[in-house]
């Protein structure tokens, strides 16, 4: 679980500036969600259980939450479109989970 949390925080820190920039944030969120979910499976040595699948998707969604917090630095505001990063990251994570 610690690897998934660390991957989610790192992914969110990468996603924050992308959300502020506004360019390619949907595909970037999807890729980060995929990478975070993949890190969860890597850390569990490719275990396939409902808990691992749920944790992979939770970590993928948490990466966007961290990204939105990073993007909301004082004096800046991410666009409302940035909230679309949640489903994009979840879909990226779902691609990994679905293959199991």
Overview of this structure, please?
The chain is mainly alpha-helical. Helix content is 75%, strand content 0%. The chain has 4 helices and no strands. The chain has helices at 2-21, 25-43, 50-71, 85-98. The longest helix is centred in the middle third of the chain and has 22 residues, at 50-71. It is elongated and about 45 Å long. The chain starts with a helix and ends with a helix.
| Integer-rounded radius of gyration | 13 Å
Class from helix and strand fractions: mainly alpha
Distance between the termini: 18 Å
The number of helical runs is 4
Low-confidence stretches at least 5 residues in length (pLDDT < 50)? none
Mean pLDDT: 87
DSSP summary, beta strand count: 0
The backbone outline, from C-alpha atoms, is: elongated
- What is the helix fraction of residues, given as a range? over 70%
Strand content: under 5%
Describe the main β-sheet briefly. none
Order of helices and strands: HHHH
Structure, briefly:
With 100 residues, the chain is mainly α. The protein has helices at residues 2-21, 25-43, 50-71, 85-98. α1 packs antiparallel against α2 and α2 (25-43) runs parallel beside α4 (85-98).
Descriptive terms for the model:
mainly alpha, 100 residues, elongated, 75% helix
Give the SSE layout.
Elements: H1 2-21, H2 25-43, H3 50-71, H4 85-98
Helix pairs in contact: 1-2, 1-3, 2-3, 2-4, 3-4
């Amino acid at each position: 679980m610690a690897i998934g949390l660390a991957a989610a925080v790192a992914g969110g820190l990468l996603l924050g500036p992308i959300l502020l920039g506004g360019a390619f944030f949907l595909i970037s969120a999807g890729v980060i969600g995929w990478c975070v979910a993949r890190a969860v499976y890597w850390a569990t040595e490719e275990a396939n259980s409902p808990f691992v699948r749920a944790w992979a998707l939770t970590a993928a969604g948490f990466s966007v939450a961290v990204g939105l917090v990073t993007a909301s630095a004082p004096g800046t505001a991410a666009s409302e479109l940035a909230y679309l990063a949640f489903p994009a990251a979840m879909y990226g994570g779902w691609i990994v989970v679905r293959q199991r």
